[in-house]
Design goal:
By secondary structure, the protein is of the alpha/beta class. It contains 12 helices and 21 strands. Helices cover about 25% and strands about 25% of the residues.
Length: about 450
Amino acid sequence: MNTTLPGLPAPAAVPSTPQPVPVPPDNTAGLSVWPASARLASHGDVAVGGVSLVEVAERFGTPVYLLDEGEVRERCRAYLRAFPDTDIVYAAKAFLCRALLHWVQEEGLGLDVCSAGELEFAVTSGFPPERIVLHGNAKSQADLNAALRLGVGRIVIDSAWEIARLSALVPDGARQKVLVRVVPGVSAGGHAAIRTGTEDQKFGLSLTDGSARHAIARILDQPHLELVGLHCHIGSQITTVKPYLTALRRMVGLLAQVRRQHGVMLPELDMGGGHAVAYRPGESPLDIPSLGARIRRELATNCAAAGIPVPRLTIEPGRAVVGPAGVALYRVLAVKRTGDRVFVAVDGGMSDNPRPALYGARYAPQLVGRRSTAEPCTATVVGRHCEAGDVLAADAALPGDIHPGDLVAIPVAGAYHLSMASSYNAVGRPPLVAVHEGRARLLIRRESLADINGRDIGL
Protein backbone atom coordinates (compact mmCIF):
# COMPACT_ATOMS: atom_id res chain seq x y z
CA MET A 1 0.00 0.00 0.00
CA ASN A 2 1.41 3.36 -1.00
CA THR A 3 0.76 6.69 0.68
CA THR A 4 0.59 9.84 -1.45
CA LEU A 5 3.04 12.51 -0.33
CA PRO A 6 1.24 15.45 1.31
CA GLY A 7 1.16 18.53 -0.87
CA LEU A 8 1.96 16.67 -4.09
CA PRO A 9 -0.32 14.56 -6.27
CA ALA A 10 0.59 10.94 -6.87
CA PRO A 11 2.32 10.18 -10.16
CA ALA A 12 0.48 8.31 -12.87
CA ALA A 13 0.68 4.53 -12.59
CA VAL A 14 3.45 2.89 -14.59
CA PRO A 15 2.23 -0.40 -16.08
CA SER A 16 5.65 -2.07 -15.94
CA THR A 17 6.06 -1.45 -12.19
CA PRO A 18 5.31 -4.57 -10.14
CA GLN A 19 2.12 -4.41 -8.09
CA PRO A 20 2.58 -4.21 -4.30
CA VAL A 21 2.21 -7.34 -2.22
CA PRO A 22 -0.73 -6.93 0.21
CA VAL A 23 0.53 -6.53 3.76
CA PRO A 24 -1.09 -5.35 6.98
CA PRO A 25 -1.45 -1.54 7.15
CA ASP A 26 0.82 -1.27 10.21
CA ASN A 27 3.71 -2.56 8.09
CA THR A 28 3.43 0.30 5.59
CA ALA A 29 3.06 3.27 7.91
CA GLY A 30 6.77 4.01 7.63
CA LEU A 31 6.57 4.42 3.85
CA SER A 32 4.68 7.72 4.06
CA VAL A 33 7.89 9.72 3.52
CA TRP A 34 9.33 7.37 0.91
CA PRO A 35 9.05 7.92 -2.85
CA ALA A 36 5.51 7.34 -4.09
CA SER A 37 6.71 4.26 -5.97
CA ALA A 38 7.86 2.52 -2.77
CA ARG A 39 6.31 -0.91 -2.15
CA LEU A 40 6.79 -3.20 0.85
CA ALA A 41 7.12 -6.90 0.04
CA SER A 42 5.95 -9.68 2.35
CA HIS A 43 9.53 -10.76 3.15
CA GLY A 44 10.51 -7.27 4.36
CA ASP A 45 12.18 -6.01 1.21
CA VAL A 46 11.21 -2.61 -0.20
CA ALA A 47 11.07 -1.82 -3.91
CA VAL A 48 11.55 1.74 -5.17
CA GLY A 49 10.83 2.49 -8.80
CA GLY A 50 10.10 -1.21 -9.22
CA VAL A 51 13.63 -2.14 -8.05
CA SER A 52 14.38 -4.24 -4.96
CA LEU A 53 16.62 -2.55 -2.39
CA VAL A 54 18.15 -5.92 -1.52
CA GLU A 55 19.09 -6.41 -5.16
CA VAL A 56 20.57 -2.89 -5.32
CA ALA A 57 22.73 -3.63 -2.27
CA GLU A 58 23.92 -6.93 -3.76
CA ARG A 59 24.65 -5.43 -7.17
CA PHE A 60 26.25 -2.11 -6.21
CA GLY A 61 27.42 -2.70 -2.63
CA THR A 62 26.79 -0.45 0.36
CA PRO A 63 26.56 2.30 1.28
CA VAL A 64 24.63 3.23 -1.85
CA TYR A 65 22.17 5.96 -2.76
CA LEU A 66 19.07 5.51 -4.91
CA LEU A 67 17.31 8.29 -6.81
CA ASP A 68 13.80 7.65 -8.12
CA GLU A 69 13.61 9.28 -11.54
CA GLY A 70 9.81 9.12 -11.63
CA GLU A 71 9.57 10.91 -8.29
CA VAL A 72 11.87 13.71 -9.43
CA ARG A 73 9.93 14.20 -12.65
CA GLU A 74 6.55 14.18 -10.89
CA ARG A 75 7.70 16.76 -8.37
CA CYS A 76 8.87 19.01 -11.21
CA ARG A 77 5.44 18.64 -12.83
CA ALA A 78 3.67 19.34 -9.55
CA TYR A 79 5.48 22.68 -9.29
CA LEU A 80 4.53 23.58 -12.85
CA ARG A 81 0.89 22.78 -12.05
CA ALA A 82 0.96 24.78 -8.81
CA PHE A 83 2.74 27.78 -10.37
CA PRO A 84 1.44 28.38 -13.90
CA ASP A 85 3.09 31.20 -15.83
CA THR A 86 6.03 31.04 -13.41
CA ASP A 87 9.70 30.27 -13.96
CA ILE A 88 10.54 27.21 -11.85
CA VAL A 89 14.30 27.12 -11.27
CA TYR A 90 15.83 24.02 -9.67
CA ALA A 91 18.35 24.85 -6.93
CA ALA A 92 21.38 22.76 -7.91
CA LYS A 93 23.03 23.05 -4.48
CA ALA A 94 20.56 20.44 -3.19
CA PHE A 95 22.10 17.87 -5.52
CA LEU A 96 23.60 17.91 -8.99
CA CYS A 97 24.47 15.22 -11.52
CA ARG A 98 24.20 14.95 -15.29
CA ALA A 99 21.13 12.71 -15.29
CA LEU A 100 19.27 15.00 -12.90
CA LEU A 101 20.11 17.99 -15.10
CA HIS A 102 18.61 16.12 -18.03
CA TRP A 103 15.44 15.29 -16.10
CA VAL A 104 14.73 18.80 -14.84
CA GLN A 105 15.52 20.32 -18.23
CA GLU A 106 13.14 17.90 -19.95
CA GLU A 107 10.44 18.80 -17.44
CA GLY A 108 10.78 22.51 -18.27
CA LEU A 109 12.69 23.82 -15.24
CA GLY A 110 15.55 26.30 -15.18
CA LEU A 111 18.59 26.03 -12.94
CA ASP A 112 20.06 27.96 -10.01
CA VAL A 113 23.82 27.54 -9.42
CA CYS A 114 26.20 28.95 -6.81
CA SER A 115 29.65 28.69 -8.38
CA ALA A 116 31.63 28.53 -11.60
CA GLY A 117 32.00 24.80 -10.95
CA GLU A 118 28.26 24.14 -10.84
CA LEU A 119 27.75 26.47 -13.80
CA GLU A 120 30.37 24.86 -16.03
CA PHE A 121 29.19 21.37 -15.08
CA ALA A 122 25.65 22.30 -16.09
CA VAL A 123 26.54 24.01 -19.36
CA THR A 124 28.97 21.29 -20.46
CA SER A 125 26.22 18.76 -19.70
CA GLY A 126 23.97 20.52 -22.17
CA PHE A 127 21.88 22.77 -19.94
CA PRO A 128 20.97 26.05 -21.73
CA PRO A 129 22.96 28.85 -20.03
CA GLU A 130 20.22 31.42 -20.64
CA ARG A 131 17.99 29.39 -18.28
CA ILE A 132 20.54 29.51 -15.46
CA VAL A 133 20.66 31.91 -12.49
CA LEU A 134 24.00 32.43 -10.69
CA HIS A 135 23.91 33.08 -6.93
CA GLY A 136 26.61 33.53 -4.30
CA ASN A 137 27.43 35.88 -1.45
CA ALA A 138 31.15 35.89 -2.30
CA LYS A 139 31.50 35.40 -6.03
CA SER A 140 35.10 35.26 -7.17
CA GLN A 141 36.34 36.86 -10.36
CA ALA A 142 36.50 33.34 -11.80
CA ASP A 143 32.80 32.88 -10.98
CA LEU A 144 31.84 36.13 -12.69
CA ASN A 145 34.09 35.53 -15.70
CA ALA A 146 32.60 32.07 -16.17
CA ALA A 147 29.09 33.47 -15.99
CA LEU A 148 29.83 36.07 -18.65
CA ARG A 149 31.80 33.70 -20.87
CA LEU A 150 29.10 31.04 -20.80
CA GLY A 151 26.19 33.48 -21.19
CA VAL A 152 24.35 32.87 -17.93
CA GLY A 153 20.80 34.23 -17.96
CA ARG A 154 20.81 36.08 -14.63
CA ILE A 155 23.39 37.03 -12.01
CA VAL A 156 22.07 37.81 -8.54
CA ILE A 157 23.89 40.80 -7.01
CA ASP A 158 24.46 39.93 -3.35
CA SER A 159 26.69 42.78 -2.17
CA ALA A 160 27.62 46.31 -3.15
CA TRP A 161 31.17 45.40 -4.26
CA GLU A 162 29.82 43.11 -6.97
CA ILE A 163 28.26 45.99 -8.86
CA ALA A 164 31.45 47.72 -9.98
CA ARG A 165 33.43 44.49 -10.31
CA LEU A 166 30.83 42.80 -12.53
CA SER A 167 30.26 45.94 -14.59
CA ALA A 168 33.99 46.18 -15.29
CA LEU A 169 34.07 42.61 -16.59
CA VAL A 170 31.18 42.94 -19.04
CA PRO A 171 32.54 43.39 -22.59
CA ASP A 172 31.93 46.69 -24.37
CA GLY A 173 28.64 46.75 -26.17
CA ALA A 174 27.15 44.01 -23.97
CA ARG A 175 24.78 44.13 -21.00
CA GLN A 176 24.38 41.49 -18.30
CA LYS A 177 20.94 40.93 -16.77
CA VAL A 178 21.03 41.03 -12.98
CA LEU A 179 18.76 40.74 -9.95
CA VAL A 180 19.34 42.29 -6.52
CA ARG A 181 19.08 39.96 -3.55
CA VAL A 182 17.05 41.72 -0.89
CA VAL A 183 16.88 40.84 2.81
CA PRO A 184 13.18 41.43 3.60
CA GLY A 185 13.48 41.04 7.40
CA VAL A 186 11.50 37.80 7.65
CA SER A 187 12.69 35.02 9.96
CA ALA A 188 11.77 31.55 8.72
CA GLY A 189 13.36 28.14 8.50
CA GLY A 190 13.88 24.90 10.39
CA HIS A 191 17.26 25.80 11.96
CA ALA A 192 19.21 28.97 12.69
CA ALA A 193 21.89 27.97 10.17
CA ILE A 194 19.36 27.95 7.30
CA ARG A 195 17.44 31.18 8.04
CA THR A 196 18.44 33.71 5.42
CA GLY A 197 15.73 36.37 5.50
CA THR A 198 17.06 38.46 8.40
CA GLU A 199 20.02 40.80 8.78
CA ASP A 200 22.06 38.61 11.13
CA GLN A 201 23.33 36.37 8.32
CA LYS A 202 25.64 36.74 5.33
CA PHE A 203 23.28 36.92 2.36
CA GLY A 204 21.74 39.86 0.55
CA LEU A 205 21.20 43.59 0.96
CA SER A 206 19.01 44.99 3.69
CA LEU A 207 15.63 46.51 2.99
CA THR A 208 15.58 48.09 6.45
CA ASP A 209 18.85 50.07 6.37
CA GLY A 210 18.54 51.18 2.75
CA SER A 211 21.35 49.01 1.36
CA ALA A 212 19.05 47.38 -1.18
CA ARG A 213 17.70 50.70 -2.44
CA HIS A 214 21.22 52.13 -2.72
CA ALA A 215 22.38 49.10 -4.72
CA ILE A 216 19.40 49.41 -7.05
CA ALA A 217 20.21 53.06 -7.75
CA ARG A 218 23.86 52.23 -8.47
CA ILE A 219 22.99 49.38 -10.84
CA LEU A 220 20.56 51.56 -12.79
CA ASP A 221 23.49 53.91 -13.47
CA GLN A 222 25.69 51.13 -14.88
CA PRO A 223 25.56 50.94 -18.70
CA HIS A 224 26.83 47.33 -18.72
CA LEU A 225 24.23 46.02 -16.26
CA GLU A 226 20.52 45.56 -16.90
CA LEU A 227 18.53 45.37 -13.67
CA VAL A 228 15.56 43.10 -14.45
CA GLY A 229 14.21 42.33 -11.00
CA LEU A 230 14.47 41.62 -7.30
CA HIS A 231 15.30 38.40 -5.48
CA CYS A 232 14.83 37.13 -1.94
CA HIS A 233 15.28 33.83 -0.16
CA ILE A 234 14.08 33.73 3.43
CA GLY A 235 15.27 30.31 4.61
CA SER A 236 14.93 26.55 4.24
CA GLN A 237 12.60 23.87 5.59
CA ILE A 238 9.77 26.39 5.86
CA THR A 239 6.50 24.60 6.64
CA THR A 240 3.93 27.42 6.33
CA VAL A 241 2.90 29.88 3.63
CA LYS A 242 2.68 32.95 5.88
CA PRO A 243 6.40 33.95 5.85
CA TYR A 244 6.40 33.92 2.05
CA LEU A 245 3.37 36.22 1.93
CA THR A 246 5.01 38.65 4.36
CA ALA A 247 8.20 38.71 2.29
CA LEU A 248 6.25 39.10 -0.94
CA ARG A 249 4.37 42.15 0.35
CA ARG A 250 7.65 43.82 1.27
CA MET A 251 9.18 42.99 -2.09
CA VAL A 252 6.18 44.43 -3.96
CA GLY A 253 6.52 47.55 -1.83
CA LEU A 254 10.13 47.89 -2.97
CA LEU A 255 9.15 47.37 -6.62
CA ALA A 256 6.64 50.20 -6.26
CA GLN A 257 9.23 52.43 -4.61
CA VAL A 258 11.71 51.79 -7.45
CA ARG A 259 9.07 52.83 -9.95
CA ARG A 260 8.26 56.02 -8.04
CA GLN A 261 11.89 57.07 -7.52
CA HIS A 262 13.45 55.94 -10.79
CA GLY A 263 10.55 55.61 -13.21
CA VAL A 264 11.53 51.98 -13.83
CA MET A 265 9.20 49.01 -13.52
CA LEU A 266 11.31 45.94 -12.83
CA PRO A 267 9.69 43.02 -14.69
CA GLU A 268 10.83 40.06 -12.53
CA LEU A 269 10.44 38.92 -8.93
CA ASP A 270 12.27 35.84 -7.63
CA MET A 271 10.91 34.55 -4.31
CA GLY A 272 13.55 31.84 -3.80
CA GLY A 273 12.76 28.43 -2.35
CA GLY A 274 13.17 26.75 1.03
CA HIS A 275 10.02 24.63 0.84
CA ALA A 276 9.94 22.04 3.61
CA VAL A 277 9.72 18.29 3.11
CA ALA A 278 8.80 15.65 5.69
CA TYR A 279 11.75 13.58 6.85
CA ARG A 280 9.78 11.40 9.28
CA PRO A 281 6.20 10.10 9.35
CA GLY A 282 3.89 12.65 10.94
CA GLU A 283 5.92 15.69 9.92
CA SER A 284 4.26 18.34 7.76
CA PRO A 285 5.75 19.38 4.44
CA LEU A 286 4.88 22.70 2.86
CA ASP A 287 1.68 22.36 0.81
CA ILE A 288 2.90 23.30 -2.67
CA PRO A 289 -0.50 23.76 -4.39
CA SER A 290 -1.61 26.03 -1.54
CA LEU A 291 1.66 27.97 -1.70
CA GLY A 292 1.26 28.49 -5.44
CA ALA A 293 -2.34 29.66 -5.22
CA ARG A 294 -1.78 32.02 -2.30
CA ILE A 295 1.47 33.55 -3.59
CA ARG A 296 -0.02 34.26 -7.01
CA ARG A 297 -3.18 35.73 -5.46
CA GLU A 298 -1.19 37.86 -3.00
CA LEU A 299 1.10 39.08 -5.78
CA ALA A 300 -1.82 40.17 -7.96
CA THR A 301 -3.62 41.85 -5.04
CA ASN A 302 -0.59 43.77 -3.80
CA CYS A 303 0.49 44.89 -7.25
CA ALA A 304 -3.02 46.17 -7.95
CA ALA A 305 -3.02 48.08 -4.66
CA ALA A 306 0.39 49.58 -5.49
CA GLY A 307 -0.68 50.46 -9.02
CA ILE A 308 2.09 48.48 -10.71
CA PRO A 309 2.03 45.62 -13.26
CA VAL A 310 2.41 42.08 -11.97
CA PRO A 311 6.06 41.00 -12.49
CA ARG A 312 7.11 37.63 -13.84
CA LEU A 313 7.43 35.30 -10.85
CA THR A 314 10.34 32.91 -10.28
CA ILE A 315 10.72 30.31 -7.53
CA GLU A 316 13.72 28.10 -6.74
CA PRO A 317 12.83 24.71 -5.21
CA GLY A 318 15.70 22.31 -4.58
CA ARG A 319 15.17 20.01 -1.61
CA ALA A 320 11.45 19.70 -2.37
CA VAL A 321 12.22 18.37 -5.86
CA VAL A 322 15.01 15.91 -5.14
CA GLY A 323 15.01 15.24 -1.36
CA PRO A 324 12.07 12.81 -1.12
CA ALA A 325 13.23 11.02 -4.28
CA GLY A 326 16.39 9.70 -2.61
CA VAL A 327 17.04 6.69 -0.37
CA ALA A 328 20.33 5.85 1.36
CA LEU A 329 21.05 2.17 1.95
CA TYR A 330 23.58 0.95 4.55
CA ARG A 331 24.85 -2.37 5.89
CA VAL A 332 24.98 -2.83 9.67
CA LEU A 333 28.55 -3.48 10.84
CA ALA A 334 28.08 -3.66 14.62
CA VAL A 335 25.43 -3.43 17.33
CA LYS A 336 26.55 -2.22 20.74
CA ARG A 337 24.50 -2.01 23.93
CA THR A 338 25.94 0.43 26.45
CA GLY A 339 23.82 0.76 29.57
CA ASP A 340 20.34 1.52 28.30
CA ARG A 341 21.59 2.74 24.90
CA VAL A 342 21.63 0.71 21.69
CA PHE A 343 24.06 1.83 18.98
CA VAL A 344 23.67 0.46 15.47
CA ALA A 345 26.84 1.17 13.49
CA VAL A 346 26.62 1.19 9.68
CA ASP A 347 29.13 1.37 6.83
CA GLY A 348 28.46 5.02 5.98
CA GLY A 349 28.07 8.09 8.13
CA MET A 350 28.75 11.79 8.25
CA SER A 351 30.94 11.61 5.16
CA ASP A 352 27.87 10.92 3.03
CA ASN A 353 25.28 12.67 5.24
CA PRO A 354 26.56 15.58 7.33
CA ARG A 355 23.08 17.03 7.99
CA PRO A 356 22.55 15.52 11.46
CA ALA A 357 25.92 16.90 12.59
CA LEU A 358 25.29 20.31 10.99
CA TYR A 359 21.63 20.89 11.75
CA GLY A 360 20.50 18.16 14.12
CA ALA A 361 18.46 16.67 11.28
CA ARG A 362 16.28 13.70 12.18
CA TYR A 363 15.41 10.69 10.04
CA ALA A 364 13.31 7.51 10.13
CA PRO A 365 15.63 4.58 9.27
CA GLN A 366 14.03 1.26 8.44
CA LEU A 367 15.20 -2.35 8.41
CA VAL A 368 14.84 -3.80 4.91
CA GLY A 369 15.46 -7.27 3.50
CA ARG A 370 13.83 -9.32 6.25
CA ARG A 371 10.74 -9.30 8.41
CA SER A 372 11.27 -9.14 12.14
CA THR A 373 8.79 -10.11 14.85
CA ALA A 374 11.03 -8.78 17.63
CA GLU A 375 9.83 -5.97 19.83
CA PRO A 376 11.13 -2.59 18.64
CA CYS A 377 13.93 -0.86 20.48
CA THR A 378 15.06 2.75 20.52
CA ALA A 379 18.41 2.84 18.81
CA THR A 380 20.95 5.40 17.67
CA VAL A 381 22.16 4.75 14.14
CA VAL A 382 25.78 5.86 13.95
CA GLY A 383 28.42 5.98 11.25
CA ARG A 384 31.91 4.55 10.95
CA HIS A 385 33.86 7.79 11.36
CA CYS A 386 36.11 8.76 14.22
CA GLU A 387 33.74 11.38 15.65
CA ALA A 388 31.31 11.06 18.54
CA GLY A 389 28.99 13.32 16.57
CA ASP A 390 28.85 10.89 13.64
CA VAL A 391 25.17 10.11 14.19
CA LEU A 392 22.81 9.42 11.29
CA ALA A 393 19.59 8.94 13.28
CA ALA A 394 19.01 9.39 17.00
CA ASP A 395 16.09 7.74 18.82
CA ALA A 396 15.22 5.51 15.89
CA ALA A 397 12.68 2.72 16.24
CA LEU A 398 14.31 -0.47 14.96
CA PRO A 399 13.66 -4.17 15.67
CA GLY A 400 15.27 -5.41 18.86
CA ASP A 401 16.98 -8.24 16.99
CA ILE A 402 18.82 -6.02 14.51
CA HIS A 403 22.29 -7.44 13.91
CA PRO A 404 25.40 -7.12 11.74
CA GLY A 405 24.68 -7.86 8.10
CA ASP A 406 21.21 -6.31 8.16
CA LEU A 407 20.31 -3.60 5.67
CA VAL A 408 19.06 -0.24 6.93
CA ALA A 409 17.48 2.28 4.58
CA ILE A 410 17.08 6.01 5.26
CA PRO A 411 14.49 7.75 3.06
CA VAL A 412 14.40 11.43 2.06
CA ALA A 413 18.10 11.26 1.25
CA GLY A 414 18.13 13.05 -2.10
CA ALA A 415 19.12 16.54 -0.94
CA TYR A 416 22.22 17.79 0.90
CA HIS A 417 23.69 14.32 1.36
CA LEU A 418 25.91 13.56 -1.62
CA SER A 419 26.09 17.26 -2.51
CA MET A 420 27.88 17.89 0.81
CA ALA A 421 29.68 14.55 1.02
CA SER A 422 33.39 14.24 1.82
CA SER A 423 36.10 11.58 1.93
CA TYR A 424 36.68 11.96 5.67
CA ASN A 425 38.85 9.15 7.10
CA ALA A 426 39.68 8.28 3.46
CA VAL A 427 36.27 6.66 3.11
CA GLY A 428 35.16 7.07 -0.49
CA ARG A 429 31.84 8.67 -1.32
CA PRO A 430 29.02 6.24 -2.17
CA PRO A 431 27.68 5.59 -5.66
CA LEU A 432 24.33 6.88 -6.91
CA VAL A 433 21.89 4.60 -8.70
CA ALA A 434 18.83 5.76 -10.62
CA VAL A 435 15.74 3.56 -10.36
CA HIS A 436 12.80 3.79 -12.74
CA GLU A 437 10.21 1.37 -14.13
CA GLY A 438 11.96 -1.69 -12.76
CA ARG A 439 15.43 -0.73 -14.00
CA ALA A 440 18.50 0.34 -12.00
CA ARG A 441 21.42 2.14 -13.60
CA LEU A 442 24.57 3.64 -12.16
CA LEU A 443 24.74 7.44 -12.36
CA ILE A 444 27.80 8.11 -10.19
CA ARG A 445 30.35 5.41 -9.39
CA ARG A 446 31.77 4.77 -5.95
CA GLU A 447 34.81 6.88 -5.07
CA SER A 448 37.80 4.55 -4.71
CA LEU A 449 40.95 4.74 -2.64
CA ALA A 450 42.79 5.25 -5.93
CA ASP A 451 40.66 8.36 -6.56
CA ILE A 452 41.59 9.74 -3.15
CA ASN A 453 45.28 8.85 -3.46
CA GLY A 454 45.45 10.28 -6.96
CA ARG A 455 44.89 13.82 -5.70
CA ASP A 456 47.93 13.67 -3.40
CA ILE A 457 51.05 14.53 -5.42
CA GLY A 458 53.29 15.56 -2.52
CA LEU A 459 56.08 12.98 -3.01
